[in-house]
């Protein structure tokens, strides 16, 4: 076997490999001998078929299998000897001319092919004991608990009918019948009866609820609105519409005493128990926010400490996934890059940087996990599947079957578990210091990123 490196450019390598026909013939011959005791041919007793006859019948298919196996074995040996860790599947180029293929399958010519690869660079891991990580921690205050309970009360508020001549005001609940048209034509989903609208809840199309202010029971109005550009229905998105609307009932929100009786309507023994449950939930939410902040800071530190060339094909693949998603969202929202105060060229540049960072961090986390024998057990994945199933009451079996029969979906569950275990490993070594912050400061980064 002859191996000649024809390209060595950064992380890209290409080799020309030649395997003598005699080697292929010997391997194919061994396969035919092995086949002798397995095939049944008319006119021959079991195990007595001459190899020469087998070669006439199965020679070409056996040679094809031999060539395929030889390429796999040769490539594996080549990559192992040179310490290559592949970033993508190798690209193999075989003879394509009909005469060349015939000669090869008939065992009359050497096997000559090229293999192009892209490798993962050697990654020198940083000393994680030198990492300084700040952990923002917010305590749950009594006012936080009170606000949470108030939100619960607001969502459980009752309404009572207003007087006969009363008019709807902001905060009131109005029961309506409506028929919508676009350019005078009714459209699918544009009509409804007995629909309850809380004015100011912003659950209807922008501008719809505000036009109900001042309406009385049994009064009919024509409401003029426009569907948002990012409306779920492409046919309606951005379209101006009119809704002939009749109010059938006007109700005002009733004062709700937040006391033991209210707690009992929620299935709890007392107001103290409700406050205890609210505090526990807020504590868990704050802990989740702290975790996200710490993880983000750690990933930033890993990014700074590991600067190397990421495999271009992986970066391109990651970029295309993100870019296609961004374009789809913008098209759905009817937005342009100008609306985002940028240009397509600048946006592409920014997303390429993000793709490069994601690929490098993925390789670093993988290297850390591999060197420290960090793994994800089947039990951990199973618990993740159960948690997903719990999030969809009534469809648990459907969720379970989906993951059981979908290896790719299971891999998508396994990946974040693995990432979190690697992050926890690093945090055990790093110097983590707690810093008390307010709730506002704890969520500030998330709110700023959302706004951006």
UniProtKB/TrEMBL annotation:
Gene3D superfamilies, alphabetized: 3.10.50.40, Trigger factor ribosome-binding domain, Trigger factor, C-terminal domain
UniProt-listed GO biological process terms: 'de novo' cotranslational protein folding; cell division; protein transport; protein unfolding
Residues covered by the PPIase FKBP-type domain: 171-259
Broad class of enzyme this protein falls into: isomerase
Subcellular location: Cytoplasm
GO molecular function: peptidyl-prolyl cis-trans isomerase activity; protein folding chaperone; ribosome binding
A GO cellular component entry from the record: cytoplasm
Pfam families: FKBP_C (PF00254), Trigger_C (PF05698), Trigger_N (PF05697)
Catalytic reactions of this protein: [protein]-peptidylproline (omega=180) = [protein]-peptidylproline (omega=0)
Enzyme Commission identifier(s): 5.2.1.8
PROSITE patterns the UniProt entry points to: FKBP_PPIASE (PS50059)
Keywords associated with the record: Cell cycle, Cell division, Chaperone, Cytoplasm, Isomerase, Rotamase
Family that this chain belongs to: Belongs to the FKBP-type PPIase family. Tig subfamily.
Function: Involved in protein export. Acts as a chaperone by maintaining the newly synthesized protein in an open conformation. Functions as a peptidyl-prolyl cis-trans isomerase.
Domain note: Consists of 3 domains; the N-terminus binds the ribosome, the middle domain has PPIase activity, while the C-terminus has intrinsic chaperone activity on its own.
Protein name: Trigger factor
Organism: Bradyrhizobium guangdongense
């Amino acid at each position: 076997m002859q191996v000649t490196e024809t390209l060595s450019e950064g992380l890209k390598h290409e080799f020309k490999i030649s395997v003598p026909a005699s080697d292929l013939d010997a391997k194919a011959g061994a396969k035919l001998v092995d086949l002798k005791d397995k095939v049944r041919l008319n006119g021959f007793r079991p195990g007595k078929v001459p190899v020469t006859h087998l070669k006439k019948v199965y020679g070409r298919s056996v040679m094809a299998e031999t060539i395929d196996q030889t390429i796999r074995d040769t490539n594996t040996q080549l990559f192992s000897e040179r310490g290559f860790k592949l970033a993508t599947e190798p690209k193999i180029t075989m003879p394509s001319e009909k005469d060349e293929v015939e000669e090869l399958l008939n065992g009359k010519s050497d096997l000559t092919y090229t293999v192009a690869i892209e490798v993962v660079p050697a990654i020198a891991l940083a000393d994680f004991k030198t990492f300084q990580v700040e952990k923002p921690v917010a305590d749950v205050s009594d006012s936080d608990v009170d606000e949470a309970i108030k939100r619960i009360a607001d969502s459980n508020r009752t309404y009572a009918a207003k007087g006969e001549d009363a008019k709807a005001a902001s905060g009131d609940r109005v029961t309506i019948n409506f028929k919508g048209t676009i350019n005078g034509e009714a459209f699918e989903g544009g009509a409804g009866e007995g629909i309850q609208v809380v004015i100011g809840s912003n659950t209807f199309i922008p501008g719809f609820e505000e036009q109900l202010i001042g309406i009385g029971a049994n009064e009919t109005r024509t409401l003029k609105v426009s569907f948002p550009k990012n409306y779920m229905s492409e046919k309606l998105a951005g379209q101006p519409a009119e809704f002939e609307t009749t109010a059938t009932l006007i109700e005002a929100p009733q004062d709700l005493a937040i006391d033991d009786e209210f707690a009992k309507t929620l299935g709890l023994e007392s107001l103290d128990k409700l406050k205890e449950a609210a505090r526990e939930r807020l504590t868990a939410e704050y802990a989740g926010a702290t975790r996200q902040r710490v993880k983000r800071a750690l990933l930033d530190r890993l990014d700074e400490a590991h600067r190397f060339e990421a495999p271009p094909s992986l970066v391109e693949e990651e970029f295309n996934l993100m870019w296609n998603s961004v374009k789809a969202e913008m098209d759905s929202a009817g937005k342009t890059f100008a609306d985002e105060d940028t240009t397509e060229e600048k946006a592409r540049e920014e997303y390429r940087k993000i793709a490069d960072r994601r690929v490098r961090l993925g390789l670093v986390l993988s290297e850390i996990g591999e060197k420290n024998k960090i793994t994800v057990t089947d039990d951990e994945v199973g618990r993740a599947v159960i948690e997903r199933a719990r999030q969809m009451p009534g469809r648990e079996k459907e969720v379970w079957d989906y993951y059981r029969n979908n290896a790719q979906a299971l891999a998508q569950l396994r990946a974040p578990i693995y990432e979190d275990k690697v992050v926890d490993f690093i945090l055990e070594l790093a110097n983590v210091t707690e810093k008390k912050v307010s709730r506002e400061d704890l969520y500030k980064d998330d709110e700023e990123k959302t706004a951006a």
